[in-house]
Amino acid sequence: MPHPPDQPRAERTPLTINTVPVFDVRSPAQAVEALPYLLSCQPDGPDGMVFVLVHDTLHDRPLFCQKFDLPSAKDDPNKAAHNMMHSTLHRLEKLATGPAAILVYLCARQQDAGDGHAAMTRHRTVATALLLSAETHGIDTLAAMFVTPTHWWVYHHDNPNYRHEGMPVDGPDNPGVVTMNARAVGIPTPPSQAAIAASLEPVTGKDAAAQRAAILHAVGERAARVQATSFDAETERLTAILDRLLLDGGDGTPLEDLTPDQTAELIVGLRHRPLRDVALEYIEPKELPRARELWALLARRCASATTTLVAAPLTLAAFTAAVTGEVPAALIALERARKADPRYLLAGLLMEELVMTGSVDEIADEFREEREARLRGRDN
């Protein structure tokens, strides 16, 4: 692959899961070192993945990336490999490019990182199935590798220098060629996926029990208020609370001090589009830090990563992260939102926008206009 383009930082395409930074990669070690830049984050999150980089062999350049869930022991490896390869080929056909080859990364789950060699051995059947599926479809494979945060292995190799216990991963703390080249052109070190995910993890124990009870109570209270007044009146009531907490920087109330009942009524209210759309308006510079804090807090206080209620605060957290330019954090939050509720349309829309353009600027401008109209109406 050619060297990184010599462009000013502001003019380079943002790093997202499908815009591939171009590095001079000449070995498996450098391919592993480039992985965080391809992912836009360090591959140290709780869930494993299969990451496929498609390379244009005619023009010697990367084309796009695809990310898939790492198959479990219960999955049929051949079926999983076929589905992954079919998805990759479908996208490749749309590009109408020439011959292509793939580079396959199997990234360990967090619980497997402590015994990487054993995990690598367990997933060998998946790697073999991917290699066979690629061969069947007429695609060359540059390499198939298993990667943990600290070590890597190459499947089906005959290099005697590769150690049984794995080869060490180069990165920010022990930079190799790829990291040095990235720093030279101003590409920042990708953030930790584990740290981003941890900031969105649901509360547990007594806190979770109290929050679940508060959410159940909030559902009944909301129904009673809507019946006594109107749906619009309830939306206006909750909008006033969000304005107090966030508008122009908010009133300074420590958000962590919000009670379970206070956060529960916001969580339940945000499930409904009118309030959710108002929540998307708090994206001015004075508001963004507290808005990000509030949406992450509400996501944690949903007390479950699988309840459909968590889709709204996670999507709001993603939107504010994207507005500030933190695309990796936005993508991780959106993936969690879509897992919680695959039908949540806004999460899919934002994901598509980030993948295709690397920003949410156009969507943000629309909600700024909505905000101006709302505030004018309120003042009048």
From TrEMBL:
<dbReference type="Pfam" id="PF13830">
    <property type="entry name" value="DUF4192"/>
</dbReference>
<protein>
    <submittedName>
        <fullName>DUF4192 domain-containing protein</fullName>
    </submittedName>
</protein>
<dbReference type="InterPro" id="IPR025447">
    <property type="entry name" value="DUF4192"/>
</dbReference>
